[in-house]
């Protein structure tokens, strides 16, 4: 069994970033881009936690992440289904999203699969993958936004390299469990 992963914490780095001297030197545009990056990161975390709540990565995120300020900031709210109808009606009536659900249910019925679960219906409503299939139409990125927000993110996991003795011990334990 793998040991629990610990989040990387650099207290000195956090203190430097939070100091007033560093924040005074940042330009207004730089601060805005940092706020946007943090928002997009929180949004991606919320989507990942919704799609795979049992994952080790989902459990490593703090237990109470920041809740979205309003329904427009929540990636799982029907208002963010990607349709103008969902946006205008606040997610209460969206024929485009209803069509996605209907098509996903019809495809499942044609393939002899069981009916969609509530979570799969929600994913179809939001235009996400349902049972490995993509629903809806692919969206195009706006060139102005993609130029200003294009940042690469690298998640680094630092682990101890096991010794040969550790590997042999684990191999013996696995062989005993198989017998």
Question: What proportion of the residues is helical, as a percent range?
Answer: 40-55%
Structural class: mainly alpha
The radius of gyration over CA amounts to 22 Å
Parts with pLDDT < 50 across at least 5 consecutive residues: none
N- and C-termini, Cα separation: 17 Å
Average pLDDT, rounded to a whole number, is 75
General shape: flat
Number of strands: 0
Q: Count every helix, treating DSSP H or I runs of 4 or more residues as helices.
A: 9
How would you sum up the major sheet? none
How do the helices and strands follow one another from N- to C-terminus?
A: HHHHHHHHH
Percent strand: under 5%
How would you characterize the overall build of this protein?
The protein contains nine helices and no strands. Among the domains are: 8-67; 76-137, no CATH class. The longest helix has 24 residues, at 28-51. 8% of the residues are buried. The mean pLDDT is 75. It is an all-alpha fold and 179 residues long. Helix content is 53%, strand content 0%.
């Amino acid at each position: 069994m793998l040991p629990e992963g610990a989040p990387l914490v650099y207290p000195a780095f956090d203190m430097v970033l939070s100091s007033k001297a560093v924040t005074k030197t940042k330009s207004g545009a730089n601060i805005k881009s940092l706020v946007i990056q943090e928002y997009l990161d929180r949004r991606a975390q919320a989507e990942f936690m919704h799609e795979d709540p049992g994952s080790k990565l989902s459990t490593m995120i703090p237990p109470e992440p920041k809740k979205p300020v309003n329904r427009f900031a929540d990636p799982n709210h029907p208002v963010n289904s990607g349709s103008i109808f969902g946006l205008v009606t606040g997610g209460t009536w969206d024929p485009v999203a209803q069509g996605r659900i209907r098509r996903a249910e019809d495809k499942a019925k044609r393939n002899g699969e069981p009916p969609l679960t509530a979570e799969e219906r929600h994913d179809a409503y939001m235009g996400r993958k349902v049972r490995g299939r993509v629903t809806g139409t692919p969206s195009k990125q706006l060139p102005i936004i993609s130029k200003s927000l294009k940042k690469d993110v690298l998640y680094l996991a630092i682990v101890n390299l096991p010794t040969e003795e550790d590997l042999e011990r684990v191999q013996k334990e696995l062989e005993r469990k198989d017998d």
